[in-house]
Design goal:
Layout (H helix, E strand, L loop, with lengths): L2 H35 L5 H20 L5 H4 L3 H22 L4 H8 L2 H13 L5 H18 L8 H23 L5 H22 L6 H24 L4 H6 L2 H15 L5 H28 L1
Helix pairs in contact: 1-10, 1-12, 2-4, 2-9, 2-10, 4-8, 4-9, 5-8, 5-12, 5-13, 6-8, 7-13
Length: 295
């Protein structure tokens, strides 16, 4: 590679890492805001408000194109994604309120592994030996975190365990949708769809919203929106670089947990999280090399 190409490649790596670090900080702030401001608000109501506000924030950017959500030839697939993602967010909110933040973050990092398995099962991608090894290592990391048979597995842990594969499924559907729709329509359809699906569950448990709750809802809506924007920016560089930046989210979550909630993560949680992240980074690195080789 010539010097100019090498410099451009190095800059792309720095940019991808930088955007991912900002994204990780935003999503860490989302978890902190849930714990600080929404403890007394039902998760169904919190999810409904978060995505209703998110859809309203996006509406000016959509303009007349907002109607595309109900006329698109893939509107059924967008609805399926909204339902799946809504269930994932609900179980995520539920888990964040019940188990240490570091444990939540560690188990959610299994998402890319589930996405890899989903791509093999539903999109016809090949399962190579390196992928198999990385998947096995990641699940070993998950077992280190959960410690089955040695520690109590509560409802919060179960909720986060089922959250990761649902988020992965949502990501796979989004990848398919990108062949038919632009990013704005896909993002708006998700917010509007989740808000629609959560109306009835939210009404069933509705309770008065305090000023503290509103602070939390607004903070989550803004931080999550910025998190998604910076996440997409990070994908402009090498995927392995963006994935490596995710290590910072564990650091942010651990620091916030210690400073705000006196949560000292167990050594097993940190070790398991690093094992999972190493496996996920390896998968991203191999995928990046495979794309370059196939280009």
């Amino acid at each position: 590679m010539n010097p100019a190409g090498a410099a451009a490649g190095a800059r792309a790596v720095r940019v991808a890492l930088g955007w991912m670090v900002v994204s990780c900080l935003m999503f860490a702030l989302v978890m902190v805001s849930i714990r600080l401001f929404l403890v007394d608000l039902p998760s169904e109501q919190s999810v409904f408000l978060r995505y209703t506000i998110g859809a309203l924030m996006l509406l000016p950017l959509m303009g007349r194109a907002a109607g595309r959500v109900v006329t698109s030839p893939v509107r059924g697939l967008m609805a399926v994604r909204a339902l799946l993602h809504g269930l994932a967010v609900y179980s995520w909110f539920f888990g964040v309120l019940r188990i240490p933040l570091a444990e939540v973050n560690a188990m959610l990092n299994l998402g890319p592994v589930y996405a890899t398995l989903g791509a093999v099962l539903f999109m016809g991608e090949k399962l190579r030996i390196r992928r198999i090894a990385a998947i096995l290592v990641s699940f070993i990391g998950a077992l280190i975190i959960i410690k089955p048979g040695f520690a109590e597995i509560n409802l919060g842990t179960i909720a986060i365990l089922i959250t990761a594969p649902m988020f992965a499924g949502s990501d796979l559907i989004a990848k398919r949708l990108k062949a038919f729709e632009n990013d704005r329509t896909i993002i708006f359809s998700l917010s509007a769809g989740i808000a629609a699906f959560m109306i009835v569950p939210a009404i069933g448990v509705w309770q008065p919203i305090s000023a503290t709750n509103w602070i939390g809802i607004m903070a989550i809506s803004i931080a999550a929106t910025l998190g998604h924007i910076t996440l997409m920016r990070s994908f402009s560089g090498p995927m392995w670089a963006a994935q490596t930046g995710k290590y910072m989210q564990l650091l942010f979550v651990v620091l916030f947990g210690i400073a705000l909630f006196d949560e000292i993560p167990a050594i097993s949680t940190l070790i398991g999280a690093l094992v999972v992240l190493a496996a996920v980074t390896y998968i991203a690195f191999r995928e990046g090399r495979n794309r370059v080789a196939g280009a």
